[in-house]
Structure formats: C-alpha cells, structure tokens
Amino acid sequence: MEWTRGHTIGRGATATVSIATSRSGNVFAVKSTELSRSEFFQREQKILSTLNSPFVVGYRGYDITQHHNTIMFNLMMEYVPFGTLVDAIHKYGGRLDESMISHYTSQIVQGLEYLHSTGIVHCDIKGRNILIGEDGAKISDFGCSKKVKTPVEGRTDDREASIGGTPAFMAPEVARGEEQRFPADIWALGCTIIEMATGGSPWPNLSHPTSILYRITSSHELPEFPAFLSDKAKDFLSKCLRRDPNERWTAKQLVKHPFLEELSNVKKLTNDRVTRSPTSILDRDIWSFIDESETPYNRSRTDSTLNSPNQRLKQLSMNSGFKVNWNLEDRWITVREWEDNNVRPVHLVINDR
Ligand SMILES: Nc1ncnc2c1ncn2[C@@H]1O[C@H](COP(=O)(O)OP(=O)(O)OP(=O)(O)O)[C@@H](O)[C@H]1O
Predict the structure, then answer these.
(1) Is the ipTM of this complex over 0.90?
(2) Residue (of 322, 327, 316) closest to 343 by Cα position
(3) Could you give the CA distance from residue 111 to residue 54 in angstroms, rounded to a whole number?
(4) Distance from the alpha carbon of residue 129 to the mean position of ligand 1, in angstroms
(5) Could you point out which of 48, 70, 319, 334 has its C-alpha 20 to 30 Å from the C-alpha of 304?
(6) Please, which pLDDT band fits residue 262 given cuts at 50, 70 and 90?
(7) Which helix (H) or strand (E) holds 65?
(8) If you measure from the C-alpha of residue 143 to the centroid of ligand 1, how many angstroms do you get, rounded to a whole number?
C-alpha cells in the first residue's frame, strides 16, 4: 500500500507516531522505529494483527521503508483522534468524575475480557496506553504483551518468559518477578482507575521505580482508594486490587459489576477534542512533584540503605530472597534475578516512563 506520512501525533520511548494517508484517501496512524530497534514493535505487530475488537486499537498492516539511510519498521493502525486517557484527565482539570471513570472503565474491561479470552496478557495497562476515540476508550501499545495459554488450555511456565511493564502499575507477583498473567492486567486496571480519579500515580509519594518496586514487593499495602469515590466504585477497586492474584476478579466477572451499570450522563470527548500532541512528559508532570525522600516512609529510614538505586535494590533483593542486577539501557531497566546460585531465566523489563 502506498501512503504519505503527515504530522507527528505522539512519541513513545522508542517510536514516533504520525498521521498518514493512503492513496485512496484513508487516514490511519503509523508508528515507526528503526528496524534494528524494532523487537518490541514486531511483537506488537504480531499480536495486534490477530485482534479485532471495538475496545482495542485496530490493526491496518505493516511495512518496511527506507528514510534517507535508515531502514524503518512501520506499524499501521486505526487513527484514534482524541489522545490518551492521560490527556483526557488533563483536559478535565486533573481528574475525571465518577461517571466518566465508570464509562472508560467499562470499555477497558470489555477490551481486557476480549484480550484474555484470546490468551493475550497486555502487561502494560495504564492511562498512557489507553487511546480515546469517537466511541470512547481503546487499549493500545502491545509492545510488552504476550500470549499465554488460556485457563482452558492450561498454564504456561512464566519463569521462561520475560515479564515487565510500568512499576507504578505492577501487581505484586509481577514486581517480585514470579508471573504475569491475566490477573496482572486486572491489578493495573485498578491502578488506572486511581489514575483517572486522582490524576496521579497509585503510589503518589514514590517517584523512583526502585522505591515503587520495593514498596510493592516488601509491604502488604494496597494503593490508597480515593475517598470521594462511591461505595460501588470502591467495591469495584477492591475486586481489582487484591495482592493475591487468585483472589482478583476476572474481566468477565468485572463487566457485570454494578459500578459499570451507571453509565448515564457521560461527557464524551468527541466534539471537544484534545488537540495537544501527547508526549511522554505528561507522566513526569503528574507524578514527579512529590519527592520520595520527603515521605514519612523514607524519613524513618535514616540509615544509608536506601540512598542510591543500587543500595535500594540490595535491600530489595535481601527482602525478596533474590539477587538483583540492574542494567540501565536507554529509558528501560532490565532486572535479572538469581535464586541461590541458579540463574533464573526471568527478567523484568521495566517501562520507566
Ligand atoms: N493509533 C493511534 N492513534 C492516535 N494516536 C496514537 C496512536 N497510537 C499511538 N498514538 C500516540 O502516540 C503515542 C506513543 O504511542 P505508543 O505509546 O504506542 O508508543 P511507544 O513507543 O510504544 O510508547 P512507550 O513509551 O509506552 O513504549 C501515544 O501516547 C499516543 O499519544
């Protein structure tokens, strides 16, 4: 298919997303990166090409092109015009009201129900990866996603697979490097509801990924439920945010929860579009205003154990029973874990944005 690249509409850690038009005049979005750096993209392309749901960004194909001396991998997708859920939160003054939260949650849950029924774990559900279209929310960015066996087919051994995502949205079993299956997306959904309700991180006093992982793995805490939410909304959250993945509700159960029944009076974004091009700075804007060192949690730790990322990780590894080796590569952090002297094949790929 011949197509022409238009203006840039978004940038991720590795990709530039542009609007594009085909010769026949169809408009779509094209996400491009250098072929040599396209490992996650190719995974995304393979997964996206198998999916078809109104609650998941639509697949339109892929191609490889040469731009000056650079070979580019291009992933073509449905153009979703109103930015991300984080843009919507900004647009509505920093947080969404409960009717909007239930509207978008309903669509994300239906998207997750569909994905999980096909054996896909998204692995990076968060506001930045939810796009807002004419009909509402669509799940996007499948760069971390993986296919696992469905409950009917049996379990895969996640110790063989890489697991990862964004620390603030990571379920306890993921942060510990144990497994990342369907319940991990449900935990991240709970975190995304808090993001919609507060405009901030589920762990608002912590900004460094290491501190967040430390808190998730070493405490028995849950993210704080926003006080202004109704009992129904809090009950819904309590079904998502359970530390034991086996106790979390499935997407199939959650679609029937009473919180999602009240969908009247929803303000749609269709005629009131978000025009600002979304950038990665949004996450920083929201979340970095509170320094973790100012929190009582860290103030009580007057020893030097948590002074640097490496020292914090040493502490984390002592608590978790694993030795952890961190590798900073661009904006991604890879954590490899060892159990006694046996190298575990699991590594945790962390989206640091
Ligand atoms: N289909 C689309 N339609 C409209 N805008 C899009 C579309 N896909 C992506 N975008 C915009 O481009 C931005 C970057 O896209 P995406 O998150 O998929 O890139 P990424 O490099 O995988 O991101 P990350 O940094 O999370 O890995 C999104 O936040 C969004 O604003």
Answers:
(1) yes
(2) 322
(3) 8
(4) 7
(5) 334
(6) low
(7) strand 59-67
(8) 10
User: In which band, very low, low, confident or very high, does the pLDDT at 334 lie, cut at 50, 70 and 90?
Assistant: very low
Q: Is 352 a catalytic residue?
A: no
Q: Where are the domains of the chain?
A: 1-353
CA nearest 100: which of 268, 273, 254?
A: 268
What pLDDT score was predicted for residue 289?
27
Place of tokens 């990862």: 164
1-353: CATH, from 1.25.40.10, 3.40.50.920, 1.10.510.10, 1.10.1200.10: 1.10.510.10
3-state secondary structure of 20: strand
Task: Report which protein residue has its CA nearest ligand 1's atom 1.
Answer: 79
* 17 Cβ inside 6 Å of ligand 1: yes
> The tokens 């298919």 sit on which residue?
1
Could you give the CA distance from residue 218 to residue 241 in angstroms, rounded to a whole number? 16
Query: What is the distance between the alpha carbons of residues 172 and 208, in angstroms, rounded to a whole number?
Result: 17
Q: Where are the alpha helices (DSSP H) in 118-254?
A: 172-175, 182-198, 209-218, 231-240, 251-254
Token pair of 317, please? 């590894």
| pLDDT tens-digit series, residues 124-182 | 999 999 999 998 999 999 989 999 876 555 555 444 467 789 999 999 999 999 999 99
- CA-closest residue to ligand 1 atom 30: 10
Could you give the CA distance from residue 266 to residue 252 in angstroms, rounded to a whole number?
Answer: 23
Q: What is the pLDDT of residues 35-66, one digit of tens each?
A: 988 888 888 999 999 999 999 999 999 999 98
Output the six-digit token pair for 44.
């995304």
